[in-house]
Amino acid sequence: MAGPFSRLLSARPGLRLLALAGAGSLAAGFCSDRKLYELPVNDGGCIPREQSQTWPTGQLPGNCTRSRRLCPPSMVTGYPLPSAEYPDLRKHNNCMASHLTPAVYARLCDKTTPTGWTLDQCIQTGVDNPGHPFIKTVGMVAGDEETYEVFADLFDPVIQERHNGYDPRTMKHTTDLDASKIRSGYFDERYVLSSRVRTGRSIRGLSLPPACTRAERREVERVVVDALSGLEGDLAGRYYRLSEMTEAEQQQLIDDHFLFDKPVSPLLTAAGMARDWPDARGIWHNNEKSFLIWVNEEDHTRVISMEKGGNMKRVFERFCRGLKEVREDYVGELGGRT
C-alpha cells in the first residue's frame, strides 16, 4: 500500500502491537510490562546499519522469519534488546559515552554488586555532565571493589582508553617503591618551588566514596586515624577533623595550602562526593607538614609527601617509607584487608 498506515492489534492481555509501515520499511514496537522494544527492519529483513551496535550481527535472529519480520521479545534469544532506560548520550564527550552502547547497557542494567551498586549509579555523573568538546573526562565512578568485575564490559574499555591501552584482563600494573633506585632527582630550586608525590588508597571491604554510607565513611576515618596514631619519628603527627577545627587551625591549613574543601564541581557532586559534608572528613599531617593524609576526600585516603624545593628523591623516599608503615598499620587493624 502506498503511503504510511498504522494498525493497532490486540492479542492477549498485557501485550499490544503497534505497526507503522511506509514505502520499503517496517518497524515493530512491543509494549510489555511498560518496556518498549523496537526491531527496525528493512526490505531485506536486516537491521539497518545505524542500529548495528544494538544488534551486533545486523541480522534478525534465525527464529524470526522474513515473511513476518515481527518477533516478540520472548523469541529473541541471545540478542540483547535495547532498554527504555538507555540514556541519551548523543551530545556527550566522555569515555563512558564512547563505550556505553545500547547492547552493553542492556547486558548490564539489571546487574548489581553485592552492596547493591548499579550501572545507572556508575554512569549518572557522566549522564548529567556531557562534558566539553575539547576536554574528555571519564564520565563514571565505581561504588565498590566489585564494580570493576560486575560491570567489566564497560569499565575495561574505558580503562584502556584512559590509560593508553592498559588492559586489566591481560596486563598487571607494576609497583616499585624502592627509593634507592632513584639515581638523580635533584632539581634546580631557581625553577622548582616545591616537590610532591601523591597517591590514593582505599580499604578493602568498605564501599568507595560515591557509594559509602555514613557508617562506612566513619569506619574509614576510625581505621585510618588509628593506623596513623602509630607512626613515629619524623612521621609522627596529628589528625584534624574538619567538623571540629578551630578557625585558627582552619586558616593555618588554608595558608599552608594543605586543606581540601567541599567539592563544588558538578562531576563530583553528581557522583555523590559531597554527601554529609564534612562528616568524617579530615586531614592528618606530621609535625614537619611534609607527610599528609587526606581522609574521605575523593578516595578513602590520599597519601601525600611534599616539601619546598627540588629534592624529589627525598620526597619520594619519605613517600615510600610512610606508605609502607601506614599500610602495615592498616593490615594490623583490618587483619589483611587493604
From TrEMBL:
Per the record's keyword annotation, is Transmembrane helix included, yes or no?
A: no
Taxon lineage: Eukaryota, Metazoa, Chordata, Craniata, Vertebrata
**What is the protein name stated in its UniProt record?**
Creatine kinase U-type, mitochondrial
Q: Which GO terms describe its cellular component?
A: mitochondrial inner membrane
Signal peptide positions are 1-29
Which stretches make up the Phosphagen kinase N-terminal domain? Answer: 78-164
Coiled coil ranges (UniProt) are none
Q: Where in the cell is it found?
A: Mitochondrion inner membrane
